[in-house]
Structure formats: structure tokens, C-alpha cells
Amino acid sequence: MPKAKSKLKLSYHEELKLREKILKHVSEIFRRPHGGVSPFSSLSSLWSSSSISRHSSTRTSAPPPPPPPPFKPDQSVLLVGEGNFSFAHTLAENILKTGDSIIATTLDSERILKRKYDDAHEHISALIQKGGKVMYNVDATQLDKCKELKNKRFDKIVFNFPHAGAGIKDQDRNILENQKLVKAFLISCIPFLSSRRHYSDKYDGEIFLSLKSGLPYDNWNIKNIIKSIGNLVIRATNPFIPSQYPGYQHRRTLGFQEGISKGDNEEISDKKAKILLIGKKNDPKKSKKRR
Ligand SMILES: C[S@@+](CC[C@H](N)C(=O)[O-])C[C@H]1O[C@@H](n2cnc3c(N)ncnc32)[C@H](O)[C@@H]1O
To answer: Would you say the CB of residue 161 lies under 6 angstroms from ligand 1?
Structure first.
């Protein structure tokens, strides 16, 4: 075989090996039945095995499914700051399949609630029919003042989209009021969280706090608030997906106002809502004891 001219300085044996490799590759291309397809289409297989191709295929693959709603059928739930009670209703109807272990509360009196949310009575009746309990005039920042909650503990304490709603125009004051509300709520929850270590409860209680993202909500600096409390910790941050709670209709503090409020959960779908699951810092890792 005549020696191939090469600009590379290869030894005789190296050059032979290289020639063999090239010949093998080319003869393989032409040996394949390629019915009208260019033999050089084998380049596409090189492409598909390349790292660039692998990179682009991950871009088009489906994202992992979101975690399911973090409630177990045997968990006790306290809801605070309910609007029209549609969240409590769907929790009983579709998630826990019972209302027996649900206490749903609102800051409003019964009269004011019914004036603010004209669909509240339907959700409340459905919740009560499923065995749930409803309480009015419950301030989430002073749960210890509520006689009916005395000596009770919960596996989940839920506050969806807390908002002081005082109509404060000044942005800084508005943020401050909401920070105060969330901080006081979190502190108020602590004695009402179940605990495997202290009470041999089945679960360590968690606070389920849902929040909107973006401005001004990001400026509430919830992480700093939790840090400043000291003995609470964020266990998980999940997306809040309204379709996981069929029938839930987010409401503003002021009530549903035609022309101002948006239906179909638009207000939260627009805002990349998230759920923070917050627990006590020193809770043990795995469940052993049963209630
Ligand atoms: C934006 S609305 C959300 C209502 C409802 N949780 C929902 O997701 O549709 C904010 C809620 O926080 C409640 N809220 C504000 N301060 C409160 C407090 N100190 N205790 C209990 N609820 C409070 C309001 O009454 C209102 O229902």
C-alpha cells in the first residue's frame, strides 16, 4: 500500500492504524442499505450521540410532575384566614375525603363573611356535611386566645395567601404590616403543632403557608422572618397548583368585587404561587411513634 501523504508527523504504524480506521468507517457507510438516503446521513447518528444533541433533547423533555398536595387522610388540619371557605371545602371533599379532622376558621364574623363572599354559605354547608367544624372571629396571630382551640394540636396549620388587606397605599408600610401578620401567625402556631417527641403524636405538625411571588411579595422576606423566629425551619417549598384543589377559588381580603377581583384563580396563577412547609427545627427525622 503506497504511503499516504500527510502533513501530520505520524509514525509509520500510527499512520497505518489511522488509514485502517478511515477505510473501515467509509466502507461501513457504503455497505448499509440506504434506499435513496445519502450514506452521509450516518452523520446524523454521530449528531444524535453527541453531547450537543443530548443537551438539546433534555431541553424538550417534560418537566417532572409537581408533588401532590401534602395532606394525609389521617391528619388533623386547622385552617386560618379562610376567604369563602372553598379551600376547606375541597380539602374535605377531594383531598382528605372527610371533614372530621378539619377546623376551618375566619377572622370575620359570620355576618361580615356572608356579606363579603356570597358563595361562602355553600362551601360552609358542604364542609359541615362532611364533618368539618367552622369558627368565626379567629385571629390567626392570637390562636391562644381562642377557647375552642385550647389543648388542641394539629398536623397541619394552613394559611393561604395571608394579607392584612388594610388598603395601605404606602408600599413600605404595606410590606411591614404583612410581615407583622405572617410573623405573628407563625409564632402563634408553635404551641398548636403536633409533636412526636413531646406528645407521642403520630406526626410532627407543619405550617402550610401559601404565598404569591414577585413584587411586592418577594419583599416580605419570609425567609428572614422565619430565621428571626429561631425555632422554625422551612422543610419544603412547592408550587401552589390551584388545579390540585378542585373548586378552590382564591379570594381577596375585601371580598369578591365585580370588575376589581379576578375569578378562576387568575390572581394566583399570574403570580407563580408557592407553598412553604414550615416545621419546628428540632423535630426528629423519621416517624416511629403512633398516636
Ligand atoms: C388574600 S385573602 C386570602 C383568603 C383565603 N385564604 C384564600 O386563599 O382565598 C387574605 C386573608 O387573610 C385574612 N387575615 C388577615 N389578617 C388576619 C388575621 N389576623 N387572622 C386571621 N385571618 C387574617 C383575611 O381575613 C383574608 O381572608
So the answer is: yes
